Amino acid sequence: MEKLNTLKQDWLGNPRADVMAGIVVALALIPEAIAFSLIAGLNPMVGLYASFIIAMVI
What we know:
Layout: H1 2-12, H2 15-39, H3 44-57
Helix pairs in contact: 2-3
C-alpha cells in the first residue's frame, strides 16, 4: 500500500508543473512542425495537423 501512495505522489504530486511543462512543449513544437513540413515540401498546416494528431494519440 505504501508503494501505491509513493507512486501516486510521484505521478500526480504536482499537476500545475505538469500542465505548464505540457504547454511549453506544445508551444515549442509549433515551429518545429512548420519547419519539417516545409522541408518535406508540404503545406505548413499539414505539419501542424500531424503534430496535433500525434499528440492526441500519445
